[in-house]
Amino acid sequence: MKYDKEKYKIWNYKSPVILHWIINPGLVINELILGQTIPKVMLIEREGKKPFYQRSLIPCPHCGTMHNGLKWSSQNKTAFKNWFGYYCDNCKEIIPVQRNLTSLIILILTFPIWGWFRKTLKQNWLAKQPDRYKNINLEIPEKKNSTKNWLKSGLFFGLFMYVSMIIIFPLIKGEEITQRNLLIGLPFWLIGGLGWGYMMKRWMNKKGKENKAHNNV
Fold first, then answer.
1. CA distance 179 to 104
2. What global pTM score does this model have?
3. Do residues 137 and 151 both lie within one domain?
4. What total number of domains does the chain contain?
5. Pairwise CA distance, residues 168 & 182, whole Å
């Protein structure tokens, strides 16, 4: 599909955000266990006073529908369980998502195990999707305590990464979990998580450029 580059920023595998999703090994848990994914193509409206999360669009390559990015969000309980992709509630097809490199390697290596059940798993997943999109809300409720929200989100992310990188990954690799790594990793990932939460707050609330036509009036 072709998109108006004057109207939209086009995010694909070349974009820093999606590239980070591809190469960060820590996101394998988000993708394979939680079913949190990111679309292969995302469009960001260049103009408008709306914050980033209200300017992001996810196009369906099958029917051409431009879905509001909020359709796949925590408030709609659709941010997770997207193992096979993003479900388009307009044409009932699947919008392709970008795969994390580590996840892809694991899926290839374990294909002899889960490959036998792939069609059944996908059919069962598809059958559950229509109900998930019956009460979609694209309105953003006013958040009374934004500081509390980004702190909570940052701490959760930091703890998640701490457990993943310091405990789970070493166990999978058969490496020793030392007291030194546990003590050093805790403040490192908590500070990193808070930094991520603050960055996401600034990013998600960033507004687009002023409408040119409006400025010329």
1. 32
2. 0.72
3. no
4. 2
5. 12
Residues 122 and 146 in one domain: no
The residue among 124 and 75 whose pLDDT is bigger is 124
Asked whether the predicted pLDDT for residue 89 surpasses 90, the reply is yes
Token digits for 135?
């009460």
Q: Tell the burial category of 154 from Cβ atoms under 10 Å away from its Cβ (0-12, 13-18, 19+).
A: buried
Distance CA 121, CA 133 (A): 19
Q: How far apart, in whole angstroms, are the C-alpha atoms of residue 60 and residue 43?
A: 11
- Mean pLDDT across the chain, nearest whole number? 82
- Residue at a domain's end among 109, 141, 173: 141
- pLDDT tens for 108-149 read 999 999 989 999 999 999 999 999 999 898 876 555 445 566
Q: 59 and 92 share a domain?
A: yes
Q: Which of 141, 173, 195 is the last residue of a domain?
A: 141
Q: Summarize pLDDT for 23-67 with one digit per residue, the tens.
A: 888 788 889 988 989 999 999 888 777 777 778 899 999 999 999
Instruction: Give how far Cα 160 sits from Cα of 29, 57, 100, 153, 164, Å.
Output: 10, 28, 17, 11, 6
State which residues form the domain around 203.
142-217
CA atoms within 13 A on the CB side of 159: 6
- The count of other CB atoms within 10 Å of the CB of residue 85 is 16
**How far, CA to CA in Å, does 169 sit from each of 67, 72, 191?**
36, 28, 20
